[in-house]
Amino acid sequence: MYYQHKGRLHWMEDYKYLFKVVLVGNAGVGKTCLVRKFTQGIFPPGQSATIGVDFMIKTVKVGNDKIKLQIWDTAGQERFRSITQSYYRSAHAIVLVYDVSCQPSFDCLPEWLGEIESYANRRVLKILVGNKVDKGDEREVPERIGKDFSDVNSFDYFLETSALDATNVDQLFEQVATRLTNDMKATDERLHQYRSDANTSSGQNGQIRLLDRAQNQINSCCGSRQ
Amino acid sequence: MDEKLPEHVDVIVLGTGLPEAILASACSRSGLSVLHLDRNEYYGAEWSSFNLTSIKEFLQEDQNLPTTSQDLLEKLKTSPEENIVLLGNREIIGEKKAEWIREEFEEQLKDRYRRFSIDVLPKVLLSRGAMVQTLCDSQVSQYAEFKLVDRQLCPVLNEGKIELNQVPCSKGEIFTSPVLTMMEKRGLMKFITFCTQWKLKQGEETKNEQGKEILGEYAEKSFDEFLKSMGIDETLRNFIINTIGILETNPNTFEGMKACCDFMDSVGHFGPSPFLFPLYGCGELSQCFCRLAAVFGSLYCLGRPVQALVYDKQNRVCAVIADNQRINCDRIIMSAKYVPEIYKPGKSENIERICYITDKSILKGEKEHISLINIASLRANSQISRIIEAGFEVFTAPKGFYLVHATGSSEDSTSNLEDLLLKIFEQNEIEPIWRLKFDIKSLSFDEKNIEFPENLTISPNCDAFIHYSKVIDQCREIFCGIWPDRDFLPRSIKKEEEEAEEEAEDETENIE
């Protein structure tokens, strides 16, 4: 408990911004692999669907600022296209992933876009990623086609990656962090709104995150009760 | 994308309403394999929230009805001794009607339709209640955010007019409140002190008996009488019963004291008010529990036909037929909606629901508020009547607009819930823009007299209570009844990844 408590306090003070990044796209396009490669530097073996992964956190530096990326995985709910709307809520960036060696995963992109448009914040940063470029010969979606789709549908950024050989994986998330940080700095108002002070029991505009029980007890002994 | 459903799971859950979502998450959290199905394309069933576009799905008739031929179902039997039992599609929501009152807004609001989030069953969370505790323990809390219900109003009838008075919650507010006289303030403080002492003496373990003893002969008598005996005047009694206790009509003293203590216990926990409201509406909660279930491996498949059950020769459910596939299971949990027609429900209670979109708050304030009004005192024969007004503050309406939700039990025919609401509108010169009206049926099945298969469980039904403690308690009871050796949504252990991340924190990389 103490450790956790210490950990939380540590988080609160340590970084300038915390951004929520969510990944979407068909099952099996390598979303979890991208996150793991980036956050842990490993490429998980086996092809099992994602179990037990909620979100991963990694701290990066943009200029002199420490930025926390909280990267959310679909928890397998995409298998039957049953992602909860709440998954998209308060996301700062959405990374839509397809598999360059799997045409059907590209053909589903319009459906995913529809979902993003209905549930996500309109100002969300949208990024299109063609994954598995390591599968050279098996490629079914040329880079040009992906780029065109990204332009036509006004994505903020497009790139092709490989979680297997690490091509562009760091670049992807660094781009996300850099773009979000620059956006954030540009708009003072948004800066205040999303600032991670929401971690305390009442955020700047009254938003409340329920903390775990340990934290709650600490709050209530600190005399916040009236 | 068109993956097949699994051949066998431990538990199949039908319906994604809040009770089913809680149970599904408790099952998968404790390591059981779970398949969670819903005929709707959306999460939450009768516990969902809709925007002005998706409300069409709510208003239209049910989809994905089981229209499968008996032949096909028969083919899915693995032995002649098995029986196919068609699943029901009971009507839970009835008399649905939506209309534009100020028609010009239908066009004007078009670009903001998706910013509305209209709850089917709006409730609030008690800051120190069972729901908040479960959300925190299970860490489902990390999927949602909340705001304080920052204004509680108490309606008082004055010369035919309904006056809405702001209720002070904390000691600070009591002292500065202009609504109470000096005497009333003293009376209220005295009552609060009495509650604190009563709770202390009652203790944690020997709950009820000790508390009742202290109250003596009043315990089972009317709470109102008891307050009178303490010398509390009528205005204050009204405050205490309807706003602090948010009680049903004519509660007894013991119930009243308990509710008041719960309220006071929650005051000051997150802020001056004891209640919280989820951002984006109450429909978020079931989705959040579903997300936890998914994280622990529960499989989600929505918007497909869910057709029938297969009973084996011991009259146990051995499989579910959904989307023309057979999925074997050891246990099935379903909402009342899916209960096969062969079982007759007992008495059902009706919850009356009305929702208006307005462009003006029911009580103008310096800032936008999330308001809660218990109007039970105006409807003497009704068990439950309340109004919740919320809008842009909790992202359930675009800026400048409000959703006014009225919820009541509909046994009272003498004073109509909607008439009261319209009266409040009229007095405050509010012209409502849009109106939605429907009924929710709380179906219950008498499990003692109906021979349900031993491994079939019906999840708790929709209830009209103000907060979620009852749902959580019922789900816990069901779960612990079936699996006495498993923990109900225990605290999550810290994941290895997180720890590794924290250790690696100092080695952050440099971009650019």
Topology:
The complex is a heterodimer of chains A (226) and B (512).
Chain A: H1 2-14, E1 17-24, H2 31-40, E2 55-62, E3 65-72, E4 93-99, H3 103-107, H4 109-119, E5 125-131, H5 143-152, E6 157-160, H6 169-186, H7 188-194, E7 207-208, H8 213-221
Parallel strand pairs in A: 1-3, 1-4, 4-5, 5-6
Antiparallel strand pairs in A: 2-3
Chain B: E1 8-14, H1 18-29, E2 34-38, E3 49-50, H2 55-59, H3 70-75, E4 83-86, E5 93-100, H4 104-108, E6 118-119, E7 125-126, H5 130-138, E8 146-148, E9 151-158, E10 161-166, H6 171-176, H7 182-202, H8 207-215, H9 223-229, H10 234-244, H11 253-266, E11 275-278, H12 283-295, E12 299-302, E13 306-311, E14 317-322, E15 325-334, E16 349-358, E17 371-374, E18 385-391, E19 402-409, H13 417-427, E20 434-442, E21 456-458, H14 469-482, H15 496-503, E22 509-511
Parallel strand pairs in B: 1-2, 1-15, 2-12, 9-17, 15-21
Antiparallel strand pairs in B: 3-6, 4-13, 5-20, 7-11, 8-11, 9-10, 13-14, 14-15, 16-19, 16-20, 17-18, 18-19
Helix pairs in contact in B: 1-12, 1-14, 7-8, 7-11, 9-11
InterPro entries (chain A): P-loop_NTPase, Rab, Rab30, Small_GTP-bd, Small_GTPase
Pfam family, one (chain A): Ras
Subcellular location (chain A): Cytoplasmic vesicle, Autophagosome membrane; Golgi apparatus, cis-Golgi network; Golgi apparatus, trans-Golgi network membrane; Lysosome
CATH topology of the domain at 8-91 and 282-344 and 446-482 in chain B: FAD/NAD(P)-binding domain
User: Would you report the number of β strands of chain A?
Assistant: 7
Let me know the average pLDDT of chain B: 85
List unreliable stretches of 5+ residues of chain A.
Answer: 1-12, 196-204, 212-226
Overall 3D form of chain B: globular
Family (chain A): Belongs to the small GTPase superfamily. Rab family.
Protein name (chain A): Ras-related protein Rab-30
InterPro entries (chain A): P-loop_NTPase (IPR027417), Rab (IPR050227), Rab30 (IPR041820), Small_GTP-bd (IPR005225), Small_GTPase (IPR001806)
Catalytic activity (chain A): GTP + H2O = GDP + phosphate + H(+)
